[in-house]
Design goal:
It contains 17 helices and 5 strands. By secondary structure, it is an alpha/beta fold. The protein has 3 domains: 208 residues, 3-Layer(aba) Sandwich (Rossmann fold), CATH 3.40.50; 60 residues, no CATH class; 86 residues, Orthogonal Bundle (Tyrosyl-Transfer RNA Synthetase), CATH 1.10.240. The protein has a 5-stranded parallel beta sheet, with helices on both faces. α2 packs antiparallel against α7, α3 crosses α16 and α4 runs parallel beside α17. It binds tryptophan and iron/sulfur cluster. The site of iron/sulfur cluster has 14 residues, from α14, α15 and α16. Iron/sulfur cluster binds next to α14, α15 and α16.
Length: 399
Amino acid sequence: MVENRVLSGMRPTGHLHLGHYHGVLKNWLSLQNEYNSYFFVADWHAFTTHYSDKIDLESNVIEMIIDWLAVGINPNTSTIFVQSKVPEHAELHLLLSMTTPLSWLERVPSYKDQQKKLKTKDLGTYGFLGYPLLQSADILIYKAGLVPVGEDQVAHVELTREVARRFNYTYGREADFEEKAQIAISKMGKKQSKSYQALRKAYQEKGDIQALVKAQALLKEQNNITLGDRERLLGYIEGVGRIILPEPESLLTTSPKMPGLDGQKMSKSYNNTISLRDSASDIEAKIRRMPTDSARIKLTDAGNPKKCPVWQLHQVYSDTQTCNQVKEGCTKAQIGCIECKRPIIDSIQAELLPIQERIAKYHSDPSHIKQIIYDGSQKARNVAKETMAEVREAMGITY
Ligand code: TRP
Ligand code: SF4
């Protein structure tokens, strides 16, 4: 597995809002400095639910990538790409579908949930049932170690692990696996092969997890064995076979839910968002219209911040001092709601101003965006092609 490779994707929803920024993108921003990061637009995924809707997919894809870049996703350090530009995802999806039981897909919670939620659509399609498996292909084709996702996606990463395990079990076992593993060990050099064998024994006989981790690290350092041998020896520690598709782990986003204008989670479907592209006056108008503690009708009525969505935004945007002033001013009826909202309006405007300047700059140079997408997709495709070569080889389709 490529431990330090992070992969995550987003459906092309078009313009992003503050919920995406605080909930997802800020997390990507910190990850991109630490890991080898792959971020992609899951454009095929849009068809799993919107197959008959007229949406301008191209513009949605481009505008979303502009938003990523404007918040600081760096195309020089992160690989930014579009799923449909790497058709190998579809090939892996197809091949994985051969070993994936229907029941695994039917029990993914989002399958029934979304069907209930989107009642007006017929989601009894093959594509919709299979979309978590397409997501598995998205992940496994890059051998990503970590997949940053929200809670609603953890089940999909879990499915991905099962799919990978089954694939490795089915196609990773070669008739002469044991023999090949022994030859690979002998290529490691005397000292190294001795410690590998000792660690393998400790893991197999005593279930020593430390030994497993050490043996994996040892293999990672080996420069004199081939990729195939490394996979064999990784699999041989656990005794199953070659690990062709490593199991990823989900990295749960820890940032709290970004509150929307009505206090519910910010989401397009609740119509309570502030877009990254809202103008200063739109922001002001939206915040001014926000409902407050409904018991506070007159200035002289004391309020309760806990019952007020504006307070939730203070928690995101204001320092302790301002928060204390708000709490005191509200509960003692010393400040008005308009006054209370002012610092939030200022903070959001200040936060979005530089982002919007960068959005405008990217807009003025569309060929630059296209180049970034092209370069990133090429780079991703090279990695995907390597994995597919190994997958085809394991399945015996190299003729
Ligand atoms: N299914 C994800 C969503 O709806 C998007 C996605 C597609 C994804 N493929 C992925 C996320 C791979 C992480 C990794 O948000
Ligand atoms: Fe909400 Fe602030 Fe008004 Fe209190 S003073 S009700 S916290 S907007």
